[in-house]
Amino acid sequence: MRKIMQAATLAAASLAATAPALAGNGPDGYPTRPVTLVVPFAPGGGSDNIARYMAARLNERTGGTVIIDNRPGAGTNIGNEFAARAKNDGYTLLFGQVTLAINPFVYKSLRYSVDQDFVPVAHIANSPTVLLVNASLAARDVRSFVAYVQQHPREVNYGSGGAGTSVHLAGSLFNTQARLNMAHVPYKGSGPAMADLMGGQIQAIFDTAPSAMPQLGGGKVRALAITGPRRLDAAPDVPTFAEAGFPEFDAPAWYGILAPAGTAAAQIQYLNEQVNQILQEPETRKRLAQLGSVAVGGTPQAFGTFIQQESKRWQAVIQAAKVSLD
Q1: Cα distance between residue 57 and residue 275, in whole Å
Q2: Sorted alphabetically, which keywords does the UniProt record give (predicted)?
């Protein structure tokens, strides 16, 4: 038996020594091992849906394996910080959200810097925010919802995918503009928040369109309005907030891929090219539209400029809403 085991071990070692190394289609065979895409939300939400679709398409194009790593909590700070502290070898990426432009202004202290700890890779998509209510609620449109909340002070709770997220701030901003007093209930992602909305534990939710769209038509939730200048093709019956009488209300979301600062420029460029090719495919644009998003793309530099512009815009919103978190 000992001789048989020794022979098997020697055979395995011989095969390992002669087998070709795994190699992708990028520079120097990148990726030669699995790439982790960190999603700072729980599974099942809008961000997770888009991230998983992009990971599957990147698998096909790069010849490698992209693995989703969900790290929810603390308004995406847990996932963001994990990615910021990862090795800058191209094997850990962050599926970044609009919270990258928000968190520096709502949290008193962050253990990462968006400007110093990350380098932009590619801008994937933009999407509006949707106000949904439990189907049992009497409100059928935004105005009747506002009237209902005003008639039931401190009785209406709205959920979001986390404290400090764009959807949390959307609710806070709407509270201010509509002169309401809804209480905020944060969750570790849109999935758990949506589950409680459907179950009636909360009465309303501000959510990104990619997370909200799959729930429409199921009879448990009702979409009252979306942000943005126009209605979505995937939900043509849902009016914009402007049409509903609140033209100043806007709280869009966006998604993109970033890498730890210092990641090789060749890897960044390669990933950017692959993402842009994916976003140009009709099937991808159709899929993103079904999720209530619009494909963007562009250079890493353009994405970096966009993040800076978003930071300035959200800073003004946060200061007006007077939102601050520990």
Answers
A1: 9
A2: Signal
